[in-house]
Amino acid sequence: MSIELKQIVTVAQKEFWERIRNRWVLAVSIIFAAFALIIAYFGTAQQGAVGFSSIDMTIASLVSLAIYLIPLIALILGYDAIVGEREHGSLDLLLSLPITRLELLLGKFVGLSAALSFPVIAGFGVAGIFLSYSISIPQLLDYFAFLLSSIVMGLTFLSMSILVSTISRSKVIASGAAIALWFVYVLVYDLLLMGLLVAAGSRIGSNVFPLLLLLNPADIYRVANILSMENVKVLYGLATAFPATLASPWVLYGMMLFWIIAPLGIAYLRFKKQ
Amino acid sequence: MSTDAILIENVSKHYDSIVAVEDVSLSVASGEVFGLIGHNGAGKSTLFKMMLGLVAPSSGHIRLHGTAVSGDQFREVRRRIAYLPENVVFYDNLTGLETLYFFADLKGAPRRECKPLLEKVGLTGAAKRKVGGYSKGMRQRLGFAQALLGKPDILFLDEPTTGLDPEAIRSFYQLLHELKEQGVTAMLSSHSLAEIQERVDRLALMKLGRIQAVGTVSSLRRQLGLPIHFVVGLQGEGESALRRLLDGYKEARLEVNGSTASVFCSIDQKLSLLSGLTSLHGVIDDIQVKEPSLEDVFLGYVDA
């Protein structure tokens, strides 16, 4: 069956417009901007100075903030995408229109992606503008790469939350599953990995460990941002175990792309059968 | 159009071991208003979803104007049909007009249709207000406006008058009547039999996934053979005169309760018995004719 772009755009616009209307986009933008400015200004206080100074330290601090906040926001955005419409009775209505399930799902994803990316760009962008007075062009590019990776990482969690929304029977179940995802990927995964490493000792080779990191998009994001910075790398025990061969942006972004496409693909296959 | 607007052939739907719809065949002509009646769980909603192509039948075929709903031409077919689900909730943060714009865009209908439609359902004053603040009746009217986008040929209306006040119900059926005049076909379900009785051309009664009976209200009465009920007021020799008259009607049944008598007869005997009763003028002082209502017909089928 053919795909009509117009239907995807129509759904995407509606999703985005709803989030503008309920001031969701505005609220999250302000949160990001406030955190980013505070971190950019005070983030280097441990090193005995305040002010916009070290771009590497600033990015590292922002990464540790974003790694909690962005997945949470992506999961909140996406968990009711399908199950919400189903509970409201509007899903049957939508599906009775000349739109395919794939178009509906992609429209939701694109619209919610915009609602997620806009605050990231606006919030971190404001901090970027302040930073740009005190840093060089290559450093600004680093900051830009950080911005891009933050969005891509957000999309991986958005994709997972849409999968959750598609397969959950009710909104309550979907919200529980979304919180569980956040808990596992953001809080527990690294601890478990560390524990596993310690418990297994030398039986798990150091070559397995980086591969396990690639299974968590939040870890991929951390690795992508921190490995490029020599003076930050030493501060992060976890990421330093990462071999240079796997640290190529192609591998890292390729894996994140996989984490966007795979959940959406499974969501579509499940949605098609419902 | 020569083909039936809706043609359902031997359609069944089984969920694992549960039978939702069993061997249903129906045809609805263009311009017909057709009512689907049954208790909750009778299979109405599943049948609706199959007609709309949302759920695939386990067996059988459904065609709308001769075309399969979920085939290659599904977009074409769906541009010409409309659906109003039961108790639909729209998007709280969009205004009524924005909601219609969204559905018009998806349906490929021009946006200029939206304002006149809001006017038609009496929502012009609320067009720029968020749907979150709408009453249940207003949401239902918005849903109906949505269904009329793109000038559909066939309307599928699931419990369309739920939550409407009597005035709104009246104007809803008036609008439906106007659409029928223009050749629009409508398939609707309702719990309120009294309401639907005078307003549909034909009915189907559903029970446990099967169609129990199909036809006009009077043909359903005939099929079920529910008796006509005369209530007669007696005077003086009335009772014996009545008994003599009923000797000529073997199947009629008489119950006397003081000065009123109840006579039950089949629909075929109605007119002849009525003229007989009229001739007893002098010993009876009143005749009331009680036709079985659709409610009785319905209960007769469902509880039988």
Characterization of this structure:
The complex is a heterodimer of chains A (274) and B (304). Chain A is mainly α and 274 residues long. Chain A has one domain (5-273). Chain A is 78% helix and 0% strand. Chain A has 13 helices and no strands. Chain A has helices spanning 5-21, 24-42, 55-78, 83-88, 90-95, 101-131, 137-167, 171-200, 208-213, 217-226, 230-233, 237-240, 249-273. In chain A, helix 3 crosses helix 8 and helix 7 (137-167) packs antiparallel against helix 10. Chain B is of the alpha/beta class and 304 residues long. Helix content of chain B is 34%, strand content 28%. Chain B has eleven helices and 14 strands. In chain B, strand 4 and strand 5 (67-68) form a beta hairpin. The mean pLDDT of chain B is 88. Classes of the chains: A mainly alpha (274), B alpha/beta (304). The A-B interface holds A 1, 4, 6-7, 10-11, 14, 17-18, 21-22, 88-90, 92-99 and B 49, 52-54, 72, 74-76, 78-79, 81, 83-94, 98, 102-103, 105-108, 130, 146, 156.
Please describe the topology of this protein.
The complex is a heterodimer of chains A (274) and B (304).
Chain A: H1 5-21, H2 24-42, H3 55-78, H4 83-88, H5 90-95, H6 101-131, H7 137-167, H8 171-200, H9 208-213, H10 217-226, H11 230-233, H12 237-240, H13 249-273
Helix pairs in contact in A: 1-6, 2-3, 2-6, 3-6, 3-7, 3-8, 3-10, 6-7, 6-13, 7-8, 7-10, 7-13, 10-13
Chain B: E1 6-15, E2 18-28, E3 33-37, H1 44-51, E4 59-64, E5 67-68, H2 74-79, E6 81-84, H3 96-107, H4 114-120, H5 136-147, E7 154-158, H6 166-181, E8 185-189, H7 193-197, E9 202-207, E10 210-215, H8 217-224, E11 228-234, H9 238-246, E12 253-257, E13 260-265, H10 270-278, E14 284-290, H11 294-303
Parallel strand pairs in B: 3-8, 3-9, 6-7, 7-8
Antiparallel strand pairs in B: 1-2, 1-4, 4-5, 9-10, 11-13, 11-14, 12-13
Helix pairs in contact in B: 4-5, 8-11
